[in-house]
Amino acid sequence: MKAPPRLDADRLLDDPRTRIIVCCGSGGVGKTTAAAALGLRAAERGRHVVVLTVDPARRLAQSMGLSSLDNTPRPVPLPEGGTAAGGTLHAMMLDMKRTFDEIVETHAEPGRSEQILANPFYQSLSSSFAGTQEYMAMEKLGQLRRSEQWDLIVVDTPPSRSALDFLDAPQRLSRFLDGRLLKLLTAPTRTGGRAYLKVVNAGFGVITGIVAKVLGAQVLRDVQTFVAALDTMFGGFRERAEDTYRLLQTPGTAFLVVATPEPDALREASYFVERLSEDRMPLAGLILNRVHRSPATRLSAARSLAAAEALVPAGAAAQTAYSAGGNGGAGALADVTRYPLAVAALRLHAERMQLIASERRLAQGFTAAHPGVPVARVIAQPEDVHDLAGLRVIGESLTAD
Amino acid sequence: MPVRARDSDWEGVRLHVVTGKGGTGKTTVAGALALALASEGGRVLLMEVEGRQGIAQLFDCPPLPYGERKVAVAPGTPTAPGGDVYALAADPESALVEYLETFYNLWHAGRTLTRLGIVDFATTIAPGLRDVLLTGKAAEATRRRKSGRHIYDAVVMDAPPTGRIGRFLNVASEVSGLAKMGPIRGHADTVQSVIRSPETAVHFVTVLEEMPVQETLDGIAELRGLAQGGLQLGGVMINMVRPTGLTDDQLAAAARGDPDRHELAVGLKSAGIENGTGAEGADVVDALADELCEHATQVLGQREHRRMLTSAGQPCYDLPLITDRMDLAGLYRLAAALRDQGAA
Q: Is B271 close to A344, i.e. CB distance below 8 A?
């Protein structure tokens, strides 16, 4: 089996042409931690970094000094013991509603923005439309990039079922806002009040009729008011989304797909890699996160299990084999063997070797499908990361291979 | 309904809502719960709402249509044959069409709307609409009767993840923000009365890791806020539990980085494994000791997470880690674990 090319993360971080790193992947694979670890490492190597995060674990956020969702980059003091390369680290947590409000405030016609912000339809759209979070993450990324205050932006993508949502959702929102359907539905207000007196075409009547029937006429009025107020901004949403999309296609951007060595996560990673190449997005590589290792790889699973069995008299093994729930196994082990600690260690080791083998098979499957994609591994940590020292360990593991 | 051999902790609950953070095995546990509920006979509906076809994958059958199909027979007990598990993959589009058809006789219009993409539009301008249609479908299945008897003895809903569950279940007030009156509001109120009745309970699936546990605790707190309105919290299903082979003393020592290396070395030697002699390498004992230390750190972390979960005050149930590929046999094992602990 051919090994994948190695992903040289340090070279990527050190290259001044790298301006944006996007960490993407399915939910729960450690995107946020990877993004934070890369940001810290880049800062410790001398870059001026901002990490844009969407939904960090509470303790990780606290470790970076992000106690509140305030949509502003905050300086993160670099921990002791790092290299004095003169870099800086900022971190911010995305507030999607605030970001949306700011777009409206900046771009709506004078006097209209308050009307828009108070509209119930706008409020629902800006806080819960599927895709708003992705759109706003892209928007914020564009803003940070244009500000030229940082020479590297590391962003992790919103938690979603599918990694592809990050690429699709912004266009979905802009299509929706600029779309014909919304205009069709709101045509009467857009052509002036007199339109109500006109004979509207049948298709339009059916649609508004049913929306009014199901949701109530007041919802329809909210939408119509919203569209009228937002009139001058139409077209702008799609344009903004397309701008950021193009920014992502430039060589200064590097996509890192994050996955754990598990079937679902790697399947998502595969989809994402294919999609990035279709869309000509610059893929830097795969971060295989939480990979297990053993300090005793020469002791095989089979040999380890056989040794454990040799220490437990025949017949007693079945009783102490793992039963569901609890930790009843411990007492039972001591009853049947003189060497409970050795038996436990051997069984643990066998399990770990089996896990390592299965992870390796999965990783090989990915590389067989995408032989050109460089891979970096991060070793599984026994504890969750919740401080900068822990992030530094992740960064070291990422580049140690 | 067949006579039960014994009571479960959720006697009287007919709609089981199962939530959990992504990656914790929510769909698997929902499937196991459905099997467990059907194991003394009867008929249980397992319903998914996110269009993922997770149930079809779980039971290894072709993608499910918007219709109720039998997917499995429950294992049964020595005194009773197993019942049937039906499955339904619900999606907002089909639910809206069905809603229009049922309440307004708008069958044709419904199809037209779907084609125009307006369903997506309507569920977008009123996100609560999507939820009320899906919870509405679950409520309908729970209450559905034929000749005075319930069609389903229980309904298990593979619900949205913990982060969205409060909003999902709080349909009436979510919808009321947009639709202060009108037919959908009335429908939402009806659904709410089912969700907030003793017939419904919300279970959380988690694993013993930081983020899932934190989300579970947040979710429980959020739903407690809604509980004044009658929402009933269910159990915490702790998934992928692995028992440790170590005693508490051994764990504590190993977590300090100080397992009894002598005892370990003696034990290994009597199994024929020694430092430096065989193919295993020069320091196999230390290597295995290191693995013990990592394991102990992990186990103690998991215990801390378990303590936090227990302190939330809801009953906890353990589900063993299934290391093989999840198949019907694995689901039966999980179902048995749920029954043994009184979750079903």
A: no
Strand A375-379 relative to strand A74-75, pairing: unpaired
Residues 115-134, chain A, touching B (beta carbon < 8 A):
120-121, 124-125, 128-130
Q: In the beta sheet, which residues pair with residue B41?
A: B39
Higher pLDDT, A145 or A233: A145
Residues B55 and B111 both lie in one domain: yes
Q: Contacts of residue A333 in chain B, CB cutoff 8 Å? A: 245
Interface predicted TM-score (ipTM) of this complex, two decimals: 0.83
Reported as a single tens digit per residue, the pLDDT across B320-333 is 998 777 789 999 99
Strand partners, B103: none
Is B8 within the bounds of a domain? no
Least confident of A75-84, A208-217, B214-223: A208-217
* DSSP H or E segment with residue B145: strand B145-146
Residue B130 token pair: 């999507």
Distance CA A135, CA A141 (A): 10
Q: How far from B90 is each of A224, A363, B46, B72, CA to CA, in Å? A: 31, 34, 10, 18
Residue of higher predicted confidence among A216 and B342: B342
Q: How close does chain B come to A180, measured CA to CA in Å?
A: 11
Helices B261-270 + B284-311 axis angle, to 10: 120
| pTM strictly above 0.90 | no
Contact B244, B295 (CB under 8 A): yes
Residue B221 token pair = 């707190």
Which of B48, B58, B102, B121 to probe the A interface (max A CBs under 10 A)? B121
pLDDT tens digits, one per residue of A29-78? 888 899 999 999 999 999 999 999 887 667 677 777 777 667 889 999 89
| Best residue of A214, A221, A226, A383 to probe chain B, by most B CBs closer than 10 Å | A214
Model confidence at A322, in pLDDT bands (50, 70, 90)? very low
For a pLDDT cut of 70, what percent of chain B falls above it?
A: 86
> Which of A138 and A199 is assigned the larger pLDDT?
A138
Contact A269, A285 (CB under 8 A): no
A84 touches chain B (CB under 8 A): no
Min Cα distance A76 → chain B (Å) is 23
Residue A129 lies in a domain: yes
Q: Which residue has the tokens 């290994």?
A: B268
State which residues form the domain around B208: 15-242+321-340
* Residues B139 and B152: beta-carbon distance below 8 Å: no
Inter-chain CB proximity B211 and A176 less than 8 Å = no
Do residues B139 and B252 both lie within one domain? no
- Measured between CB atoms, does A356 come within 8 Å of chain B? no
pLDDT at A194: 41
CA neighbor of A12 nearest in space, from A154, A122, A205: A154
Q: Do residue A241 and residue A314 come from a single domain?
A: no
Q: Rounded to a whole number, what is the distance in angstroms from the first to the last CA of chain A?
A: 18
- In whole angstroms, what is the distance from residue B285 CA to residue B113 CA? 69
More confident: A208 or A306: A306
- B145 lies in the same domain as B64: yes
**pLDDT (mean) for A223-241:** 72
CB contact under 8 A, B266 and A342: yes
- Note whether B183 contacts A213, CB cutoff 8 Å: yes
Contacts of B88 (CB under 8 A, 6+ apart): B45, B46, B47, B48, B64, B66, B67, B68, B69, B137, B141
Q: Are A342 and B245 an interchain contact pair (Cβ–Cβ within 8 Å)?
A: no
B chain contacts of residue A181, beta-carbon cutoff 8 Å? 116-118, 121
Cβ count within 10 A of residue B198: 11
Whether residues B259 and A341 touch (CB distance < 8 A) is answered with: yes
Q: Give the residue numbers spanning the domain of A126.
A: 9-112+120-169+237-293+369-400
